[in-house]
C-alpha cells in the first residue's frame, strides 16, 4: 500500500526532527572533544604528569567519542538520503531496496530512514 500524503508529511517531519537531533549531538560531541583536555574537563590542572592509567582512560574515551561521532555521521547521511528520496523521488521512498516491496509504515514510523523491510541494512 502506498503512503498517503498525511503519512509522507508525518515522516518528513520525523526525518527533519531526527536530522536536527543528530546534528546537535554531533556538534556537541565535536565541541566537547575540541574545547579542553581531559585534565581540564576533570578539573585537574596541576603540573604533575598524568598517570598511565589516566592516559589509558583518556585514550579509551577519545576512541569512544570518535566511534559515536562516526555512528551519528552515518545516521545523518542515511537521514539526508531518505529526505532526498522522499522529496525528489517519492515513489522510491518506503520501498525495500532488497525485495521491492513496500516497507511497513510501522517500521518507517520507528526508523523513517529505513531502506529495507527487515533489520539488516536499515
What is the CATH architecture annotation?
Up-down Bundle
- Domains, number: 1
The level of helicity is 55-70%
Total number of strands: 0
Kindly estimate the percentage of residues that lie in beta strands according to DSSP.
Answer: under 5%
Number of helices: 4
Main beta sheet, described?
none
CA distance, first residue to last residue: 20 Å
CATH H-level superfamily = DksA, coiled-coil domain
The Cα radius of gyration reads 20 Å
Structural class of the helix and strand makeup?
Answer: mainly alpha
| Low-pLDDT regions | none
Name of the CATH class: Mainly Alpha
Q: Overall 3D geometry?
A: elongated
Summarize the structure in words:
By secondary structure, the chain is mainly α. It has 4 helices and no strands. The protein has helices at 5-35, 38-42, 52-88, 105-110. Helix 1 runs antiparallel to helix 3 (52-88). It is elongated, with a radius of gyration of 20 Å. It starts with a helix and ends in a 12-residue tail after the last helix.
Features:
Four Helix Bundle (Hemerythrin (Met), subunit A), 122 residues, mainly alpha
Outline:
The protein is an all-alpha fold. The protein has helices spanning 5-35, 38-42, 52-88, 105-110.
